[in-house]
Design brief:
The protein is built from 13 helices and 37 strands. The protein has 736 residues and is α+β, with helices and mostly antiparallel strands. The chain folds into 5 domains: 100 residues, Golgi alpha-mannosidase II (Immunoglobulin-like); 168 residues, Glycosidases (TIM Barrel), CATH 3.20.20; 161 residues, no CATH class; 117 residues, Jelly Rolls; 76 residues, Immunoglobulin-like (Sandwich), CATH 2.60.40. Helix 9 runs parallel beside helix 10 and helix 10 runs parallel beside helix 11.
């Protein structure tokens, strides 16, 4: 394992600011993504369990009502159920005597009656109804896949595959009638909102079998047709990929699997279903999806979906987290829980970044999972363990594993999304305002500790009554959830390696959000292009809405062998833009090849309704997997405390002159600031701009060094702009 150094939050001296990572938060600017601005806990804060999960009552729980504590106490929503539909098929329903290979539908209906009656009479079910409104129902491989494997009652689904009875017809009929008979939106347990056709079929039947993959995809179409006959409102999706890995074999994996699935089944699928896992301990390597790989995976699927169907269909990510391979056969340890949680937080923030395209996400954290015990070793990713499993503890009672700290961390977050931006891609961010509450989320993709300069605007300090800061990090590979209290919003925070911080800020009055940032994602007319050296790839992005002011980020998905260039020449409407060197997350050197997204800031002024983007690499091989543009239209000018077009991690373009802007002292408590412009060109004039975008002070320069009176400026952060010969040099100035 790489070194992970984490510490509890503390305030840093102001002189350390230059080494910090700036994060700007504008609490008065609502950030909507595709018209969605509210944090939907039903989508994002879930558990891989169903309403009637037996694990809630199995054995003796130390907490008297574990179900209520998790679901209501932590504000968690039910996620996915694969058990009961399998149990009824495998152990209960009879074969139709007149239709071999088909379930007896009358018997199935009889079996549903006590099931529905039990729901209405059992308060431990019906009182959680509101937490069960968007659950996922899924079929497991057996006995649903028609290959002759019998149920425990001695029959198997029909394997007939003809034009009139395509493969899976009998399976689909059973599923359709199970959904219809065992659920009732009016008087009993509600219908599942989503149905996944079959769980990880390609991994089972192709990677570890010899099934024709096209038969699996045809099966999806048949199931979708049958289910929709009886349940037109249930949304159908697939193919529930275990490990997407589109980039393998120079994207042959994409061609043979997801691209083929979309072409064969896309018209019948309401959503795309995938699983995403980090492999931090796989064959002596660390292989992560979190960060840029997740972004590239989702972007490629979005872009392909948009180009094929004129809409980016939503995602159901019904399992995500980490596979701790080195701990598979070990008893429970806090270290394994930390391996899982650090992946959960970073992936969750990637999903939250596209709320308009996420239908549901579920961390793969089950409850007690005694069904998964193997050779006496309990199942790995569990939320509950017996006390005796921990060193120094005894007892059979069930208690939470350390994974509960993930739910403790996210326990209260809700509200309206507001503008937040980090100058460094490795610090993931989000922020929400809810009445008199503010929640600011910071997550560190770096495997070393990072220090954040938190620049919070839109609220006066005297309106803050208290700040609770939760910090989930690791100490000697054991997860710690530290909680600290402040009376004002901290300006600097230290965040542990791969740690996550959530600030909960209490205000004296409701915070009004009066401005807007409307984000839209636009896709190029083409995607998935082969790279040839020194040959420009040309893309067009149409119908872009541009308003008076805003920000733009070009997202270039890319798959290449290690050692090849990740620094193309990129032009937007004929103008070359700076390509940052930093890539979100790790550099993927321990994966077979690189697959990620280059996130390239673009000057808003370059934006047009129709945009031409050219991309040129200096070497052969690999593919541009996707190209999209995130456009943020603001209702007011927004000045960042850092340079969007030239972040600290960016490759600098061709230097027009040897200019460098220095402000002394900075921070300043004096009445004058010395402005020093190094280089061979004479600056013309200087501007001081506050964070609302207003120019508050202008002075002529005419010399390379000049003292500027700043006593008229209020305490705060300003952007200093020096203009010289078609260049603008910028620097942040803090007035104390």
């Amino acid at each position: 394992m790489k070194l992970s150094l984490s510490i509890v939050i503390f305030l840093l001296p102001i002189w350390a600011l230059a080494q910090n990572i700036d994060v700007d938060v504008n609490l008065n600017i609502k950030h909507s993504v595709g018209n969605i601005s509210e944090f939907d806990r039903d989508k994002f804060i879930t558990v891989h369990a169903g309403l009637r999960e037996n694990d809630f009552t199995l054995g003796v729980n130390e907490h008297l009502d574990m179900k209520d504590d998790l679901m209501n106490g932590h504000d968690v929503y039910f996620g996915r159920n694969t058990g009961h539909i399998s149990y009824i098929l495998n152990a209960q329903v009879k074969e139709d005597a007149n239709r071999p290979g088909y379930a007896d539908l009358e018997h199935l209906k009889e079996l549903s009656l006590p099931y529905k009656a039990q729901y209405n009479s059992n308060v431990n079910y019906n009182k959680y109804a509101k937490r069960n409104n968007s659950t996922i129902l899924a079929a497991q491989l057996h006995p649903f896949w028609p290959d002759g494997q019998e149920t425990k009652t001695g029959w198997a689904f029909s394997e007939t595959d003809t034009e009139n009875e395509p493969l899976g017809t009998a399976t689909g009929e059973y599923i359709a009638h199970y959904i219809k008979e065992f659920h009732d939106n009016e008087t009993s347990e509600v219908m599942p909102k989503y149905f996944e056709v079959i769980n990880e079929p390609v991994w089972h039947l192709v990677d570890y079998g010899a099934t024709d993959i096209n038969k699996i995809f045809e099966f999806h179409n048949t199931i979708a047709t049958e289910v929709k006959k009886e349940n037109p409102d249930v949304l159908i999706g697939g193919y529930t990929t275990a490990f997407p890995d589109f980039e393998l074999n120079n994207f042959n994996r994409w061609e043979e699997r997801w691209n083929t699935f979309m072409d064969m089944c896309g018209e019948k699928m309401d959503f795309w279903s995938i699983h995403l896992y980090d492999f931090p301990e796989f064959r002596n390597t660390e292989q992560y999806r979190k960060g840029s790989n997740v972004e590239a995976t989702l972007d490629m699927m979005e872009h392909a979906s948009f180009n094929k169907f004129n809409v980016a269909k939503p995602f159901v990510i019904s399992e995500y987290g980490a596979q701790a391979h080195a701990h598979f056969n070990d008893p429970w340890t806090p270290e394994r829980d930390w391996i899982i949680m650090k992946s959960l937080n970073s992936m969750l923030l990637s999903f939250m970044d596209r709320p308009d395209l996420i239908a549901k996400v579920i961390p793969f954290v089950v409850l007690k999972a005694e069904w998964g015990r193997h050779n006496g070793v309990p199942y790995n990713p569990r939320l509950l363990r017996q006390k005796k499993e921990a060193a120094g503890e005894t007892g059979e009672e069930w208690v939470y594993t350390d994974i509960i700290k993930f739910f403790d961390l996210w326990k209260n977050v809700k509200g309206t999304r507001v503008d937040i931006l980090s100058e460094n891609l490795d610090i993931q961010t989000d922020a929400f305002v809810d009445d008199k509450k503010v929640y600011i989320i910071l997550s560190n993709l770096n495997q070393t500790e990072s220090t954040i300069s938190l620049n919070t605007f839109g609220v006066d300090n005297d309106k803050v009554t208290s700040v609770e800061v939760k910090h989930l990090y690791a100490n000697n590979n054991e997860p710690i959830l530290a909680v600290n209290e402040f009376t004002s919003i901290p300006e600097e925070l230290s965040i542990g390696a791969e740690g996550t911080i959530i600030l909960e800020i209490d205000l004296t009055e409701t915070l009004e959000i009066v401005e807007t940032s409307k984000e839209t994602k636009y896709y190029a007319t083409d995607y998935y292009q082969e790279i040839k050296s020194n040959t420009p790839l040309s893309f067009t992005i149409n119908n872009v809405i541009k308003e008076k002011q805003g920000e733009v980020v070009l997202r270039l998905g890319l798959g290449r062998d290690h050692g090849l260039s990740l620094k193309p020449t990129v032009k937007v409407n004929g103008e070359e833009v700076v390509v940052p060197t930093n890539i979100r997350g790790d550099n993927q050197l321990e994966k077979e090849r690189f697959f990620g997204v280059l996130e390239i800031p673009v000057d808003y002024e370059l934006l047009a309704e129709t945009n031409t983007i050219t991309i040129t690499f200096p070497d052969n091989s690999g593919h541009v997997s996707s190209l999209a543009m995130r456009v943020f239209n603001f209702s007011l000018p927004v000045e960042r405390t850092f340079d969007l077009q030239m972040p600290p991690t960016a490759i600098e373009g061709t230097q027009l002159s040897n200019n460098n802007l220095v402000l002394l002292p900075n921070p300043s408590q004096q009445e004058q600031v010395s402005v020093i412009v190094k280089g061979n060109k004479i600056p013309e004039y200087i501007e001081f701009v506050d964070l609302s975008g207003k120019v508050v002070l202008t002075e002529k320069m005419g010399v390379n060094t000049k003292k500027i009176e700043v006593k008229s400026l209020k305490n705060g952060i300003y952007i200093v702009r020096v203009h010289l010969d078609k260049q603008v040099l910028t620097q942040k100035l803090i007035i104390k």
